[in-house]
Amino acid sequence: MPSTLNADSLARTLPGTWRIGATNFPMWLAGNRLQPEISYRMSKTDPLTLDDEVTFTNSKGIRKSIAGVDRWTGDGFVWRGTGLLMPFTSRWTVRGTAANDDILAIRFSKTLRTPAGLDVITRSVSDSHGFRAAVAGAAVELGLTHEDFASLTWLALER
Predict the structure, then answer these.
(1) What b-and-e string marks burial along 25-42, b requiring 16 or more CB atoms within 10 Å of the CB?
(2) Is the dihedral of CA 93, 99, 101, 103 positive or negative?
(3) 109-124 confidence digits (pLDDT tens)
(4) Would you state the torsion angle of the CA atoms of residues 57, 58, 64, 66, taken in this order, to the nearest 10 degrees?
(5) Which of 52, 105, 149, 156 is most buried per CB count within 10 Å?
(6) What is the mean pLDDT of the chain?
(7) Burial bucket for residue 116 (CB in 10 Å: 0-12, 13-18, 19+)
């Protein structure tokens, strides 16, 4: 059973930089956005609000970023883009945690522009093989079904 995650536990867990190590989200699988990372920074505690920046390396080797704000709604977050992306929103939840909160499974809902998806992120594991083994061993804690696990593509964590 996935752990119960509330605003207080997420406020302690999420801030920092996370690497996407496994995903089924097409944005990370097309081959033109590599080494994706998500950085969360605390903005407010009531309601829990985080600033986030998603960074990746494009096919020309240039580091790019997407910025947004995540607001806790009681059962998940609503992300809203900043700047030109302000009209765009999406809903996401942390499904579970493992390895002393150093691995998270994040599920996000379908939007007008993107399909639903699943990212498994880590802030400390840098070995892809070890990461896959850790996720497989903690699938229940991460809230992953067999179908979820089978749908994942494993990204290179080594630099």
Answers:
(1) bebbeeeebeebbbbbee
(2) negative
(3) 998 888 999 999 999 8
(4) -100
(5) 105
(6) 93
(7) middle
Domain residues for the domain of 125 are 7-153
pTM flag (> 0.90): yes
Within a domain: 125: yes
Encode pLDDT of 53-92 as tens digits.
999 999 999 999 999 999 999 999 999 999 888 888 999 9
Tokens of 108: 């996000």
Q: Residue 142 pLDDT more than 60?
A: yes
Bridge partners, residue 67, by sequence: 53
Q: Domain containing 97 — which CATH number? A: 2.40.128.20
Assigned domain for 121 exists: yes
Domain count of the chain? 1
Q: What percent of the chain shows pLDDT beyond 90?
A: 83
| 159 within some domain | no
